[in-house]
Amino acid sequence: MTPLVATPVREIDDVRGRHDLENAWRNPAGLLSWLSVATHQAIGMRYIVTAFIFLLAGGVEALLMRIQLAKADNTFLGPDKYNEIFTTHGTTMMFLFAVPMMEGMAIYLVPLLIGTRNVAFPRLNAFGYWMYLFGALFLYFGVFTNTAPDMGWFAYPPLSGPQFSPGKRVDFWAQMITFTEISALCVATEIIATIVKLRAPGMSLNRIPIYAWSMLIQSFMILFAMPAVMVSSTVMLLNDRTIGTHFVNPWAGGDPLLYQHVFWFFGHPEVYLIFIPALGFVSAIVETHSRRAMFGYPALVLSQLANAFVAFGLWVHHMFATDLPQMGESYFTASSMMIAIASGTQIFCWIATLWSGRVKMRTPVYFVLGFIFIFVLGGLTGVMLASVPLDLQVHDTFFVVAHFHYVLIGGALFPLFGAFYHWYPKMTGRVMDDFIGKINFWLLFIGFNVTFFPMHILGLHGMTRRIYTYPQEMGWEPMNALATVGAFIILLGGIVFILNVISSRRHGAEAGANPWDGGTLEWATDSPPRNYNFVNLPAATSRYPLWNDPKERVVVTGLRDDRREVLVTTLMDAEPHHRLVLPSSSIWPFLTALLSAIGLWGSVFHFSWYYVAMLGAFIGLVGWFWPRRREAEA
Amino acid sequence: MIAQRTLDVSELPVGSVSNHAPLWWGQLLLALIEASMFFILLAMYFYIRLSMDIWPPPGVQLPKLGPATLALIPLVLSAIGSYIASEAAKKNDRSGMLLGLGLNIVLALLFLAARWFAWNEWNFNWRATAYGSIMWALMYLHTIDAVADVILTLCLFILIVFGYRGVKQRLGVHVDSILWYFIVLIWLPAYVVLYWGPRFVGAP
Prior knowledge:
The structure holds two protein chains of two kinds.
Chain A: E1 9-12, H1 14-25, H2 31-36, H3 40-69, H4 79-113, H5 122-143, H6 169-197, H7 210-242, H8 256-289, H9 297-311, H10 326-356, H11 363-385, H12 388-394, H13 398-428, E2 430-431, H14 434-460, H15 477-507, E3 509-510, E4 554-557, E5 565-569, E6 576-581, H16 588-602, H17 609-624, H18 629-632
Antiparallel strand pairs in A: 2-3, 5-6
Chain B: E1 2-8, H1 22-50, H2 65-91, H3 94-120, H4 129-161, H5 167-200
């Protein structure tokens, strides 16, 4: 079947289609409707805004820590507050900012990139957002009621166990994980189903935009990694604390190290599932702004796949300082070093694309170059840490803090800011100011290096992590003071970014459909896209359909415009298979999330609240799937 | 009016009760998530096993083979009901769906009854060493999954009885079978590990 070849040129009435589509996809005003929204642009934007607020919260926590450490023997924060703040900082950045932000960007962008109208499961998408929000509010309810977690973002027993952490701090943390993991699993499921089944006709596997590939790979990682953290935080830790199981109790056959294994079986892939979407951002920015097809597309996609695969064989390198057999450690050293091969391949592909293209040095490209610089430095310390003797020497020092901020901020935050500048015109219809954007970049870049580079040296000088202060005689003060100055430069960069977002929203240049002359499908439609994305769904005639001759482009006709209809295509070659009516707004995803949340909140006090959650979910799902006679007639 | 090359899809059917439906993928991925949970728990079982000299630990009676093995018979047979229902759903055959779903529910309830007897005769609970904790975790997770799917199947049965059998509901019947196959299949390795493992290796 080659429907794309023999297509007649036809007149299309796009005015009438637009009118019907507006009606079918409208999100009505009013609070109830606001809670019922199930369009991907709205939900994606809610994720992005919520996650950005938590980035600011995590940033404030970071500044508080930097103020405390700026001088020796400081008493700005006490030890207990300091413990709470560094734990909340890590938890917020990983679970409430990084993963949800990457998910939000994907929810917004993936349907546009692959040429469809919404994600495959719009109501599940809404449900996922509410679960994330309820989990986040739960943790911050704890933060403001002196119940913030204080045992590090990974909550190692025995410190986090019932014996050494009485009270509810650890329990709040453990159950917050459940909320965010449910949310991430919902998004992963719908992103995979969307990419495998709702692609534009003609978008065979070798034409999928690289960012969509990244999200497909990342979503599969979530499916295999996230269950592990639910097992470690709720099955092991929470049950040990609330109902007296013995998973981590060495006196009854359990083992605290088992917790570390299961946690890091999630924890290492977690880093990559923040970082792989960022690789997708970098690819999209590089190919668009150098106006050429990506160099080495197959190598790039396969390298990302290799990164994802090897990510599941690395977890023990977080545990080199524990009592493990040397043979096992050597295996994990080797696999840790393998990551450099796949990452290196990608960096060469991007450099080759930039080198041979016509690069326009706009702000997103600055962020990509900044990413390459910082990430390579972080990668180099990564290779160093992969070696067991060096790791033992610097374990739990600021050297490690420097390393993971280089890979996470460099590897994820810089591409993310690049992506903001790159897709802001698509999301708002206005271009962000390029000059202020570059100031924004330089402030972040300089601030970042001033903050985190000295930490390498501090770590080598023996400054350990998670200490709330240090004596004058250690000689750590000047470099700590420098790092604090850097943190405030980052703050300034953040303020410039927010001001740029706000002022460009009003005064930015009109973007039009395709301000960067991009080649992928999201640039084929209005900026911002309407709720239905495309008046006529596009077909993918090549990897970069918009760079083809306009006369060669193909659009889909014959979908009904008066209801939320999309085209389902086949897995490999994206041949049209059937039409599908997607569900519209509903209040039930919100209610289901709320009813489940009540039970999960209660479960930190008693196990039986899980049954409340189950009953609540059941009631919610019955409402959610209540059939309508008209649709259900055979 | 714009003139453009077009691909007309108006002839294509609306909705599909088959493995091409996005929902089929959703169900498959949900099963993968659950499978990850199970395999992590099984890996934990082996880890805890390695750190104990005597398995099961003193004071704990090794669960009897009889009731657990008997429970397998209705469990495996119930998948036939799922298969009948899912094939009938594709053909929009109401009585076939009712037969298949009904058979599945009856056999699944028989399984749950047998499971109750098998579980009830354990002489330890989750507080009895890490062995008790991991045994209860695996048993609990699988049972709660099975109960949830029986409830789901009951809901579908009620919908079909009342004549709701549009593409959506029939697709529900089809993907429900995927979930049940998963619940049957995942228990087979778990059964071998929990019941036969200690008898092969390190029996007291």
